[in-house]
Amino acid sequence: MEKKKKKIKEILNWAVSYLKERGVDSPRINAELIAEKIIGRSRISLYLEPDFLVEDEVLAKFEKEIKRRGRRVPVEYIVGEKHFMDLKLIVSPGVYIPRPETEILVEEALRILKKLKSPASILRVVDLGTGTGNIAISIAKKFQAIKIYTIDLSFKAIKVAKMNARLNRVEKKIDFLVGDLFSPLQGKKLEGKIDLIVSNPPYVDRKKLKELPPEVKKEPDFALNGGPGGLSFYKRIIPGSLIWLKNGGWLLLEIGYDQDKKVTQLLQSEKRLSLCRIVKDFNGNPRAIIVQKTS
Known about the structure:
The protein is of the alpha/beta class. It is 39% helix and 22% strand. The strands form three sheets. A seven-stranded mixed β-sheet has the order 7-6-5-8-9-11-10, sandwiched between helices. The protein has a two-stranded antiparallel ribbon with strand order 1-2. It has a two-stranded antiparallel sheet with strand order 3-4. Helix 8 links the parallel strand 6 and strand 7 (174-178). The longest helix has 15 residues, at 56-70. It is elongated, with a radius of gyration of 22 Å.
């Protein structure tokens, strides 16, 4: 029996309509990304060859994934990847999906590390809550003489981060550690030797978790829940950083759009940490706090 086939333009039109009816933002982009993954043709070819025929077996897989997206499963989990800065990263359910706002944090880290760079020494960086490894890998690609300690409480996240480091050929520059914040650094004799600590910690107020978009609720709770006021992790990271940073070392933190004053107040209680600046995101909201340890 001859296999049934449908034109790709018909398939896409159905998918866009299906997603739109279910309140999915940017339904056409979502449909194209899923088609690119399942059908195996570039997004450009979807327009250049609208009459391309898709076999029934492939169509069934495509429809299945479109329906998952209709149930608000993040498109990144469906296609299994996410682009971050100049990286292509593997993403899987159970691991936090990188956001464009975090690129601001990385850019600030790169700017500082370039100034610290010295032919005679290796830069040491700690990435707390690494997730997919997007921050650590972005930094590792820019420096030859660097050692990054990436830490996450999730074994699954560390597994994904390792795969992404190998994919981007920087795995030899990174140590992958499972544990709670700074605890995996114990016994490594790194006290007072770290040049820069960077973190995009969970910072959603636990009372507001129910208000998050359906897609975000599909991501792991531990990567989102920042406790009361979203401040639980800052209350631990800020004083803890003093143990590991060298004098003159840097602490970079991503924050929620309305948390700059609260996090600044936490910093004021630590006399050896000096607030240098607050960096705004693309929408003009406070997004990154840059802090230096004084001698």
